[in-house]
Structure formats: C-alpha cells, structure tokens
C-alpha cells in the first residue's frame, strides 16, 4: 500500500501503465465496492445514481475550467465525439494529428459519405495549418508517445477545436474554456472506472453538435422523459448525455472531486520530474510529459523482466508516471533500460 497526495493506493511496485489504466485510490475502490454490494443486496434504486453523475460532471467542469452547464456525461470518448462529427456541415475539412488515437479521428472519418474529409499532419504543424481547416480534433497529449500539442497556437488559429484530454487531465493543469469541445475518459489519469467520460461544449459550438444518441437521460427532466413524444431534451449540454454506466459513475464521483481538489501543478511536477529523470539517465533530453516512449532492441522484454508494468504502443515501450509513482519505480526502470548493450532512443 502506498500513500500519495494524501490518499492510499494498492499499487504494485513498477506500475508505470497509467496511460492504459489508472489505479484507483482506496476511497474510490471502496465506493465502487459499496455500490456493487448495494446492487447485489437489492438495495440500489436507479435515481440514487443521479447524485454521483452530478458530482463527477461538476468535478470534470472544474478540472477544465468551464461552467458545469457545458458538460455532457457519457461512457466513452468516441460516442461523445460522434455527436460532434455528426453535426459538422457537409464537406467539412477536419485536421487531426498523424498517429492520433482513433476514438478522435474515426468518428469524423465515418462521415465521408457527407463529403467530410479528414487530413492528418505532424503534431508540431497543426497550429500553423489549422486556419486552412474547419475543425481541428486532437489529443492534448498524444497516446502513443506523450507529445504535447501547441495549445496556444491552436487557440490563436481561429479554427474550431476539439481537444481530447484523456491522456492529460489529472496530471496536466488545464484551462480550456476557449476550446469548442473538450472530451475525456475517466479511466486513465483521472483514476475512475472505465465507463465514465465527459464532453464539454462551448455554447458557440452547439450548432455543430448533434444529439444523435438522444435518450431518456438527455431529457429536460430524465425521470419524466422516459416515455412518449415529443422530443424534449435538456436546454444545456445535458442534451448530449448518454445513459450512464451507474457503477462507473459511483467511482467517478469519488475520484474526480478528489483530483479536482489537488494542486495539479504539483502533480505535474512530480510525474514529469520522474519521467524526465528517466530520460536523463538514458542520455535523452527532457520533454515535459508524464509519458515516455522508448524504442530499442529488447526494451519491452527487459522492462517486463524487471517487473515494470507498461504498454507497447506504435512499436515502442510506453511508460507513464503519475502521482503514485515513486523513486523506486524510476530506479527499477533505469536499471532495466541501462542493462545490456542494446541501443535506446526516445520517439519524438
């Protein structure tokens, strides 16, 4: 058991895989377990989950710096992005990063029958090319290698912008009220269960957001819109809500408010400090990201043998340092990567 930032985590030594799956606080794990117990005992009642949905939604809004009325709740990134992709005009030109996570790019590519085109460009050129497109859809931090997009450049471009914060929110301080859409999953750096996700919609972007998954929970009063017509959706971003995964929301309601109460600059400094220390030990320059992508012969095998839990993405080992990572994890990774004569390099 580890203690970090005032919470306890049952995280094993060498766990550097938060970019795939975050480890919950003990409080969050207990909240989910208690919710399962109430369900199993026949004590759960559907309206009881409205409060955790509201608590998680409110915390997500706080984390990205927007009013809660702008935030829709869902279960995954791609179904939320799909409501944007379905709403862009026929013939819209969309710009994405090369190698972008497909939950961001595929919903737009699926609109090809309407003449919507999707163009991929290097991440470091998105800002300079953005003005030539109707919309830019990109992750703030890239899943494959941890590269960080030029947010200031995108903001100044004048293009509509959709940002995916799934690999950044929780360690990277954000103030994204300017972005047209902000989407994020809860099960990575936010340390919530899979099945929780959110979409923030700027009021000026509502004309390009279509509630294609309209359902009872998106109604103006969910417990009065469970039957019959006419269509009566919520007057704010709840109109884009997806029916909640209740147990996941029970965990998100414990996880997100806690993270929203942290000093995220301190979390960033801790996680990035460990990541950059690993790069320095390998003779590589710092990058200011909590995610490190390492290429080299036998790298994944050496890490696994040393008890390092990480992922392989785009043919490289991906290590992710979060608030519960510590010096022992760092030393274990350094030892594994500096053992032997195989050449090591970082993906840029």
Your description of this structure?
- Keywords: Aminotransferase, Transferase.
- InterPro entries: Aminotrans_V_dom (IPR000192), PyrdxlP-dep_Trfase (IPR015424), PyrdxlP-dep_Trfase_major (IPR015421), PyrdxlP-dep_Trfase_small (IPR015422).
- This is Aminotransferase class V.
- Residues 53-282 form the Aminotransferase class V domain.
- With 348 residues, the protein is α/β, with parallel strands linked by helices.
- It folds into two domains: 2-25 and 263-346, Aspartate Aminotransferase, domain 1 (Alpha-Beta Complex); 45-260, Type I PLP-dependent aspartate aminotransferase-like (Major domain) (Aspartate Aminotransferase, domain 2), CATH 3.40.640.10.
- It contains ten helices and 13 strands.
- The longest helix is centred in the last third of the chain and has 18 residues, at 264-281.
- It is globular, with a radius of gyration of 21 Å.
């Amino acid at each position: 058991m580890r203690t970090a930032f005032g919470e306890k985590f049952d995280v094993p030594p060498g766990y550097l895989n938060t970019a795939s799956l975050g480890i919950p606080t003990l409080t969050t794990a207990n909240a989910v377990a208690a919710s399962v117990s109430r369900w199993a005992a026949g004590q759960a009642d559907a309206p009881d989950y409205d409060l955790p949905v509201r608590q998680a939604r409110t915390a997500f809004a706080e984390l990205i710096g927007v009013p809660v009325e702008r935030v829709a709740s869902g279960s995954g990134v791609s179904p939320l992005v799909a409501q944007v992709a379905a709403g862009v005009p026929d013939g819209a030109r969309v710009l994405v990063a090369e190698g972008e996570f497909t939950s961001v790019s595929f919903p737009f590519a699926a609109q090809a029958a309407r003449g919507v085109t999707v163009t991929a460009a290097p991440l470091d050129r998105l800002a300079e090319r953005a003005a030539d497109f109707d919309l830019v859809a990109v992750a703030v931090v890239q899943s494959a290698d941890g590269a960080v997009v030029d947010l200031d450049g995108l903001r100044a471009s004048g293009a509509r912008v959709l940002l995916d914060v799934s690999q950044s929110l929780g360690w990277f301080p954000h103030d994204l009220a300017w972005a047209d859409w902000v989407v994020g999953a809860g099960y990575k750096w936010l340390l919530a269960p899979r099945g929780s996700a959110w979409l923030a919609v700027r009021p000026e972007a509502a004309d390009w957001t279509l509630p294609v998954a309209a359902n009872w929970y998106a109604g103006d009063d969910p417990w009065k819109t469970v039957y019959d017509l006419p269509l009566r959706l919520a007057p704010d971003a709840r109109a884009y809500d997806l029916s909640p995964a209740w147990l996941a929301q029970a965990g998100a309601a414990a996880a997100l408010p806690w993270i929203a109460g942290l000093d995220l600059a301190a979390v960033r400094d801790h996680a990035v400090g460990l990541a950059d220390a690993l790069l320095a030990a390998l003779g590589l320059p710092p990058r200011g990201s909590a995610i490190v992508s390492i290429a080299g012969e036998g790298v994944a095998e050496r890490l696994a043998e040393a008890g390092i839990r990480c992922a392989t993405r785009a043919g490289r080992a991906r290590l992710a340092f979060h608030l519960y990572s510590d010096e022992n994890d760092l030393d274990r990774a350094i030892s594994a990567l500096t053992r032997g004569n195989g050449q090591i390099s970082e993906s840029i």
